Amino acid sequence: MEKIPQKKIHQYLRHDKKFPHVWCAGCSNGIVLGSTIRAIAQLDYKKDDIAMVSGIGCSSRMPVYVDFNTLHSLHGRAIAYATGIKMYKPEMKVIVVTGDGDATAIGGNHFIHAARRNLDLTVILINNNIYGMTGGQFSPTTPIGARATTSMYGNIDPTFDICRLAKGSGATFVARTSAFHAQEAQNFIRAGLQHKGFSVIEIVSACPVIYGRLNRKGDASKMMLWMKENVIPVKAYEKLPDDKKEDKITRGILVQEERQEYTEAYENLMQSLKPEAGDK
Amino acid sequence: MVKEKTRNTVLMQGNEAIARGTLDAGLDFFAGYPITPSTEIAELCSRELPKRGGKFIQMEDEIASISAIIGASLAGAKTMTATSGPGFSLMTEGIGFAKMTETPCVVVNVMRGGPSTGSPTKPSQADIMQSRWGNHGDAPAIVLYPNSVKESYELAIRAMNLAEKYRTCVVLLSDEVLGHMRETIELPDLSKIKILKRIQPSIPPEWYKHYPENPKYPMPMASFGEGYRYHVTGLAHDSNGFPTNLGSEVQSMSVRLQKKIVNNIDDIVQIESFQMDDAKIAIFAAGITSRAAKEAVVMARRKGVKVGMLRPLTIWPFPDRAVKKYLGDKKAVIVPELNEGQLSNELKRVMGGIWNYDIRKTKNIIEIQKFSGQLITPDEILATIKEVK
Ligand SMILES: Cc1ncc(C[n+]2csc(CCOP(=O)(O)OP(=O)(O)O)c2C)c(N)n1
């Protein structure tokens, strides 16, 4: 793997007053930020060509630290705000950073419809299985039986598989990995950015301070080790006996296909309405 | 001499006039979700925008719609969405975001009866307060309300211009009857319409502050993707747009949001006064109801009763000063409206000091209120005029 000069990476960060960041010690969000800007650096994107949009949540605080045009919107609405930017300026790279609650609870509707349209957005979904910002309530991805501040007797709400949700809704690039696999995260984000269409990169992450503590997962390093052992390649997963599959999570590129992208479809529509040369 | 037939004399529906107005004002982007009685606005935009290089998108709901137009506006587009009461309620969080982040956009609310799903095909004026307070927290509102197809067209242009000038979300009210009624109007030459183009900053990007402390209006606004990188957040922010918890910065941000509207009331507020100079009795009415009021004034004058009408075209900010000036010396003010007193209560607030107003005793404000989905007729207003002793 080619080494990216530090300088090239640092240019994408906002230096004045924006650090230290707001995240807790051991939080995975910083790792994902690193993977994201390294992916961007590898692609050599110009800072002005990128808009980063987020909703509300811990992960959604990321845009403050990067030197793009950045929009910290409303809880659940990042994809809808991004839709406006992308539709009006299709030449811009629009990246959405969102949490599991942000994207699939309050924002579930926007998530599935943007996937259906196959709008060219890159959604980096940091899944920490919990509502971090509001202090640890369960989210649509909290496992059954897990403890959260609103499920202290064990969560009874069944869990979303975000990648299956994305796929079922029509996303044309879907990948999953974990914050432990930061290099792979970087590769997937890069591939997502290069993909024309709606791409979702789910990154399983650790919230040791709330989720980890409530569920006796140990400290940040223990949670990292858990990811290392349990977020496994699709191929390895398939070889496992059924009774071993249960607490494993698959990683890899799960969907990669071509389908008409939405802004292109709109462009075609506009072209078809142009009076032909010679027409009066 | 035969008057030259203008190419622009057209029979048009109120909703259509709103769409035409915003298109003529340079609309680039429409996102919306269908709801009666506003839908024709989306339909017309869906036909016109792609032909002119503009963007139309039908979103999955109203929350998505307001979000998308704010995003597009930040990318440089002139944007609008159109809805009715229930959809407007869904948009309120986004409207607050647009005000907070000073992002221009226009939201049309073609009012229907409520609460809830109410009477979708009937007119109402019950969103006067929703249009004012349709956001959490303190923030001023600019809300316009026409009373004809011609004015729907004109105020649509004005709404777009005010949104750009003051970098805020402007609400354009209409109602079911106004929205669906057809009238002949003369469209002005496009070259004669005053259209405010968004002002781009001319300073180097390093100097650019998205929220300057002492801005002049119209205020420059950089678009995403054009060399001026800035941060936008609904959190309380400093002049660079970054989140702050510093009391002084939070306070001055809020004061600025208020001041830019309050200090420019004369520029924003428009009223119509009809036969008010010698009037003993006044009718205070807005939107569709003002048409009946005007008719009642004409009928009463024919009988020798001195009546006039005052009509706000700008509902918010409320025209306090004009109200005091024109209504302060009247024997009685009749307020007909299609709600349970949203305008008349506001009038009581303003007139309190002048009339030493006592809600229990006074006859100064006479209310005619209907919320059945039927309009208030000129005859009903005339009958009320006759009752004033
Ligand atoms: C309309 C609305 N409802 C609720 C909230 C409160 N809220 C803020 S963040 C959040 C959940 C965040 O969880 P998630 O999206 O998983 O992100 P994380 O903080 O874990 O990164 C909630 C419910 C809000 N800001 N707005």
Could you explain how this protein is built, in words?
The complex is a heterodimer of chains A (280) and B (389). Chain A is α/β, with parallel strands linked by helices. In chain A, 39% of the residues lie in helices and 18% in strands. Chain A has helices at 6-10, 29-43, 78-88, 100-106, 108-117, 162-169, 182-194, 208-214, 220-230, 234-239, 242-245, 262-273, and strands spanning 50-54, 69-72, 93-99, 122-127, 130-131, 137-138, 173-178, 199-204, 231-233, 249-256. An 8-stranded mixed sheet of chain A has the order 2-1-3-4-8-7-10-9, sandwiched between helices. Chain A has a two-stranded antiparallel ribbon with strand order 5-6. Chain A starts with 5 loop residues before the first helix and ends in a 7-residue tail after the last helix. Chain B has 389 residues and is α/β, with parallel strands linked by helices. Chain B is built from 13 helices and 16 strands. In chain B, the strands form 3 sheets. In chain B, strands 2, 3, 4, 5, 6, 7, 8 and 14 form an 8-stranded mixed sheet that branches. Chain B has a 5-stranded mixed sheet with strand order 11-13-12-15-16, sandwiched between helices. Chain B has a two-stranded antiparallel ribbon with strand order 1-9. In chain B, helix 10 (287-302) crosses helix 13. Chain A binds chain B through residues 17-18, 47-49, 51, 53, 63-64, 67-74, 77, 80-85, 87-89, 91-92, 109-110, 113, 266, 269-270, 273, and chain B through 28-29, 31, 50-51, 53, 55, 57, 59-61, 63-65, 67-77, 79, 93-94, 97, 224-235, 242-243. Strand 2 (69-72) of chain A pairs parallel with strand 10 of chain B, so a sheet runs across the interface. Bound molecules: thiamine diphosphate. Thiamine diphosphate binds next to helix 4 and strand 5 of chain A.
